[in-house]
Amino acid sequence: MNERITTAGIVEKDGKYLLGCRNTEGSVNNEKWEFIGGKNRWGESEEETLKREFLEELGVNITVGELLAQVDFTNKDTLYHLKAYRVCPSSYDFHLSVHSSISFFTLEQMCDLAMVDSDKQIVGFLRK
Predict the structure, then answer these.
(1) Three-state SS for 108?
(2) Are 9 and 47 in contact (CB under 8 A)?
(3) What's the pLDDT tens digit per position in 25-73?
(4) Which of 122, 53, 40 has its CA nearest to residue 94?
(5) Hey, which of 17, 100, 114, 127 would disulfide with 23, CB 3.0 to 4.6 Å?
(6) DSSP per residue, 15-83
(7) CA dist., res. 4 & res. 78, Å (int)
(8) What distance in Å separates the CA atoms of residue 51 and residue 115, rounded to the nearest whole number?
């Protein structure tokens, strides 16, 4: 089985967390909410992956903080190691490229959202 690292950036503002609603037709995760992030490319550090993903997906630079959670899951014969880091954007003037919308939610509100399964597990870590 292949293994791969993927990342999630946890942006917290006023007790709420940033999520994006995925706009990928044909994807199993279409129209589900997720933390911003993505798959690690060969030779990239996890910090570099998050910085690239936030720039590509929201058009903002970020500062990457501490590791908050790690969740493992399998998708299409690949074992993913999802690592969630606290991040701080340089601006909240987001420009969407792969999400139909973004918003801030409390942890309680996230319980009622249709979220990507692996990201639901991160919410459990944030609640502790």
Answers:
(1) helix
(2) no
(3) 645 556 899 999 999 999 999 999 999 999 999 999 999 999 999 999 9
(4) 53
(5) 100
(6) TEEEEEEE--TT-TTTT-EE-EEEEPPTT--HHHHHHHHHHHHHS--EEEEEEEEEEEEEETTEEEEEE
(7) 7
(8) 22
Q: Around Cβ 77, how many Cβ atoms within 10 Å?
A: 7
pLDDT score of 31:
82
Q: State both tokens at 75.
A: 């998708």
Whole-number Å distance between alpha carbons of 58 and 55 = 6
CA contacts within 13 A on the Cβ side of 38? 18
Candidates 58, 63, 111, 64; CA nearest to 83 is: 64
Three-state secondary-structure class, residue 99:
strand
Pairing of strands 78-89, 12-13: unpaired
Which residue, chain included where needed, has tokens 């199993």? 28
Q: Read off the pTM.
A: 0.92
Burial of 66 (0-12, 13-18, 19+ CB in 10 A): exposed
